[in-house]
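Translate structure to sequence.
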C-alpha cells in the first residue's frame, strides 16, 4: 500500500488479474469508505447455485451487510452493483445490464434498479462479479478499478471537478482511458442527490463516434441519494478490450449461433414493428394514448388530443441519426440522443448540449402526467434530471401529484414560494427541478417523494390526508411508473405486488388483461402474476435487458399457444445460458432460478420491517375514479360496469353513490386478487413466504427461518 502515489491518492493497492470462466470471475470486491480498505472475497458455490448473479449477488451481499435497523443513510448500508454470468456478451442483444441494490431512502427497504451502459460488464472483465460500497468517506472520493493494470485506488475527488456525469466522465476518460476510448465507464450521481431522496445513478461511457459522453440511469428508489450520502463522487472502471471470448463461454460456437439468430431477427423484424432502432421507446406514447393508458394530469385521464405533440414522429425529427445501443453489439439499439439542443433554463441557459433520450417513462411522467405536451420541454427536463442526478419517473409523478394538490387548494402559492403549480405550467415544472438542485424552495418538498409530501402537506398545511392517499401515486413509498391501470386488475397487482414498489419491470400485463382478456379468472391472473415476475427477474440475475425478449417478437409469434411469453425467445435464452455457463436449463428451470431470489427478496423486505399484505395496497386512483370529473370523463364505461357487474340501475343513483359502489367493488376485487396471488406464490394470506416454500427453494437458512417464524 502506498500513500504517496499521487497528491490525491488515499489508498493504492494491486490485485491479481484473472480470467473470467464461464461467465464468472468467482470474486467480488468490497470497498469500505469508512476505513479506506479493499477486500476481495470469493464467490461461493451457494451464491452461484442459489443466487446466480446480478440482482441475486447484490441481495446476498447486502443481506450480510445490514440489519433490520439499518437506515438508508447508515454507514453499514451498501450500494451493490453486479452484472451477471451472461452480461458483457457482445454478440447477443441486450447483454450490457447492471443491477444496483441498496436500502432505499424512499421505501426504507431493499430497492433494485437495472441500468444499461458498460459499467457492469467492465467490472466483471476487470475481475469482479459484484461490487460492494460500504461506509462513508470523510471527504469526496473517487474509487478507480483498473482492470488493465490490476490496481485499486481510492483518491480524493479533484477540488475543481464538476459533479456532472458529462464532466466527470470526460475527466477520467482523459486520465485513465484515452488510449482506448471505450475502455472506461463511470458511475456518479449529481448535485440534486444531496438535497432530495430522488437521486439516480448515471452510468456513463464515452461515445467516440460523437466525441461525447453518453448516459443511462439506475433511477429508481433514490440510489443516487445513498451514493451522495457516502461522499462518493464517482466509481471508475477500466476494462480490457471486449471480445466474444472474454467471458470464456463453455460453448463459444453455440453462443455465436444463438446470438446470430436472435440478432438477425431483431434487425429484420424491428423495422416492421416498433422501430426501436430508430425511435426507441417513444413509439409507446401513441399506443398508450390510443388505449386510454397514457397518464394525464396525475393519472386522472388516459388520453389527450395533444399527445401526438410528444409522440414518436416528433422525436424521429429530433433524434440524432445512428445505430445506438447502450452495450456493444445490441441490435435493438434503442439508446437515442438529441444533439445540439439549446437549453432555455438553468445555469447553462443558451448552451447547446447533447441529451440522452428521452424514453417513454420520461415523456409520459414529465409530459402528459403534468399536463404538458411539448417535446422540447421534455428534452430539457431530461437533460437537467440527468445533469442533476434525478429519477425522471419519481420527479414526474411527484410533480403531477403536487400540481393536483395545488389545483384543489391543498397547497397554495404561500407554500410553494409563489410558484403556480398548475397542470401544464412548463416553467413551474422546470423551476422545481432547479430548486431540487439548489436545495431550496418547494422543490425540496417535492424532492422528498410523494409519501413524505403527503405527511408534510397534512401536518404543516392541513391538507386532507384521505384525498391525498387516494391520488398520491406511490406504493411502498415508490412513485408509480407511467401506465394507467384502472381497467386492468392484473396490472394493479403488477404494481402493488411488485417487491420494491410501483414499477412495471416485474409484470406488464395491461394488454393481456384489459385488451385481450386472456386471464378472466383470479387464478389465471395469479398465474400471470407468478410467471411474468419470475421470468423478468431472470434477466436481472443474468445481466440482460428484457427488450429483445418481448418488445420485438417473431413474426409468427401471434400464432403460438402463449404469445405473451414469446416462447421462441425464452428457449433461445436457455440456450444462451447453457452456452456461457455450461449448465443446461429449460424454461421451467429459469422460473425456479428466479423464484429462489424473488422469495429471498420478499423475506429481505420482511427483515426491514415491510413485506406484508398492508404494504401491497395501492392508492385508489390506480383502481378507479377518485373525483367526479374523473368518473364523468368515462361515464358510459363506469355506468355500464355498475349495471352489468353489480346489477344496479344507475339512472336512480347520484354520482356520489355510483362512485361509492364502484369503489367498493373494485377494492374487493383487488383484495381477492391478492389472496389468489399469495396462494399461487406459496405465501400466507399476509403475504409472507411459508416455511414449506423456503424449504422447497433451499433458502431455509437459520436467519431466514427465524424471520419466517416471526412473520406467521
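Result:
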Amino acid at each position: 500500500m502506498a500513500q504517496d502515489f499521487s497528491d490525491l491518492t488515499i489508498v493504492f493497492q494491486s490485485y491479481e488479474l484473472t480470467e473470467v470462466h464461464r461467465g464468472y470471475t468467482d470474486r467480488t470486491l468490497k470497498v469500505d469508505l469508512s476505513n479506506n480498505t479493499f477486500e476481495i472475497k470469493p464467490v461461493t458455490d451457494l451464491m452461484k447455485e442459489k443466487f446466480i448473479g446480478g440482482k441475486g449477488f447484490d441481495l446476498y451481499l447486502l443481506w450480510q451487510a445490514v440489519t433490520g435497523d439499518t437506515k438508508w443513510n447508515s454507514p453499514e448500508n451498501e450500494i451493490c452493483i453486479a452484472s451477471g454470468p451472461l452480461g458483457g456478451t457482445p454478440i447477443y442483444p441486450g447483454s450490457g445490464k447492471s443491477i444496483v441494490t441498496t436500502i432505499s431512502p424512499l421505501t426504507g427497504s431493499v430497492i433494485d434498479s437495472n441500468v444499461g451502459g458498460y459499467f457492469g460488464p467492465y467490472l466483471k472483465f476487470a475481475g469482479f462479479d459484484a461490487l460492494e460500497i460500504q461506509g462513508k468517506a470523510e471527504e469526496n472520493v473517487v474509487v478507480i478499478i483498473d482492470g488493465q493494470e490490476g490496481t485499486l485506488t481510492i483518491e480524493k475527488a479533484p477540488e475543481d471537478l464538476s459533479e456532472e456525469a458529462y464532466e466527470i466522465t470526460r475527466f477520467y476518460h482523459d486520465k485513465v482511458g484515452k488510449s482506448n476510448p471505450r475502455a472506461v465507464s463511470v458511475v456518479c450521481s449529481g448535485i440534486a442527490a444531496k438535497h432530495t431522496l430522488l437521486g439516480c445513478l448515471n452510468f456513463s461511457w464515452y461515445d467516440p463516434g460523437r466525441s461525447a459522453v453518453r448516459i443511462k440511469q439506475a433511477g429508481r428508489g433514490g440510489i443516487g441519494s445513498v451514493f451522495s450520502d457516502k461522499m462518493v463522487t464517482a466509481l471508475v472502471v477500466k476494462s480490457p478490450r471486449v471480445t466474444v471470448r472474454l467471458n470464456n463461454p463453455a460453448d463459444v460456437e453455440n453462443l455465436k449461433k444463438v446470438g446470430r439468430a436472435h440478432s438477425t431477427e431483431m434487425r429484420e423484424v424491428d423495422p416492421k414493428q416498433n422501430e426501436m432502432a430508430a425511435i426507441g421507446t417513444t413509439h409507446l406514447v401513441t399506443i398508450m394514448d390510443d388505449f386510454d393508458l397514457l397518464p394525464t394530469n396525475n393519472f386522472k385521464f388516459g388520453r389527450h388530443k395533444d399527445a401526438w405533440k410528444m409522440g414518436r414522429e416528433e422525436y424521429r425529427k429530433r433524434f440524432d441519426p445512428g445505430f445506438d445501443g447502450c452495450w456493444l453489439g445490441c441490435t435493438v439499439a434503442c439508446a437515442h440522443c438529441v444533439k445540439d439542443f439549446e437549453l432555455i433554463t438553468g445555469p447553462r441557459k443558451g448552451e447547446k448540449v447533447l441529451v440522452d433520450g428521452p424514453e417513454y417513462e420520461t415523456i409520459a411522467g414529465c409530459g402528459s402526467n403534468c399536463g404538458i405536451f411539448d417535446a422540447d420541454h421534455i428534452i430539457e427536463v431530461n437533460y437537467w434530471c440527468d445533469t442533476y442526478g434525478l429519477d425522471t419517473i419519481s420527479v414526474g409523478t411527484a410533480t403531477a401529484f403536487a400540481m393536483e394538490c395545488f389545483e384543489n387548494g391543498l397547497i397554495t402559492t404561500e407554500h410553494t414560494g409563489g410558484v403556480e403549480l398548475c397542470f401544464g405550467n412548463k416553467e413551474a415544472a422546470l423551476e422545481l427541478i432547479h430548486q431540487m438542485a439548489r436545495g431550496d424552495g418547494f422543490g425540496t418538498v417535492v424532492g422528498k417523494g410523494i409519501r413524505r409530501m403527503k405527511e408534510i402537506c397534512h401536518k404543516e398545511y392541513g391538507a386532507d390526508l384521505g384525498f391525498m392517499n387516494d391520488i398520491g401515486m406511490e406504493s411502498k413509498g415508490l412513485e408509480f411508473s407511467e401506465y394507467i391501470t384502472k381497467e386492468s386488475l392484473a396490472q394493479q397487482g403488477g404494481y402493488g405486488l411488485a417487491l420494491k414498489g410501483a414499477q412495471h419491470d416485474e409484470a406488464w400485463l395491461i394488454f393481456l388483461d384489459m385488451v385481450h382478456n386472456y386471464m378472466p379468472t383470479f387464478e389465471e391472473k395469479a398465474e400471470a402474476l407468478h410467471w411474468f415476475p419470475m421470468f423478468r427477474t431472470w434477466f436481472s440475475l443474468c445481466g440482460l435487458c428484457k427488450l429483445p425478449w418481448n418488445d420485438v417478437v417473431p413474426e409468427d409469434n401471434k400464432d403460438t399457444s402463449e404469445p405473451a411469453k414469446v416462447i421462441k425467445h425464452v428457449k433461445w435464452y436457455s440456450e444462451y445460458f447453457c452456452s456461457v455457463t455450461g449448465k443446461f436449463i429449460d424454461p421451467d428451470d429459469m422460473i425456479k432460478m428466479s423464484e429462489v431470489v424473488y422469495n429471498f427478496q420478499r423475506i429481505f423486505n420482511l427483515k426491514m420491517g415491510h413485506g406484508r399484505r398492508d404494504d401491497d395496497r395501492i392508492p385508489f386512483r390506480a383502481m378507479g375514479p377518485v373525483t367526479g370529473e374523473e368518473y364523468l370523463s368515462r361515464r358510459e364505461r363506469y355506468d355500464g360496469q355498475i349495471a352489468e357487474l353489480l346489477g344496479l340501475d344507475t339512472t336512480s343513483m347520484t354520482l356520489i353513490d355510483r362512485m361509492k359502489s364502484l369503489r367498493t367493488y373494485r377494492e374487493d376485487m383487488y383484495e381477492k386478487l391478492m389472496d389468489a396471488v399469495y396462494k399461487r406464490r406459496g405465501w400466507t394470506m399476509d403475504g409472507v413466504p411459508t416455511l414449506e416454500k423456503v424449504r422447497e427453494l433451499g433458502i431455509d437458512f437459520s436467519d431466514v427461518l427465524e424471520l419466517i417464524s416471526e412473520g406467521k
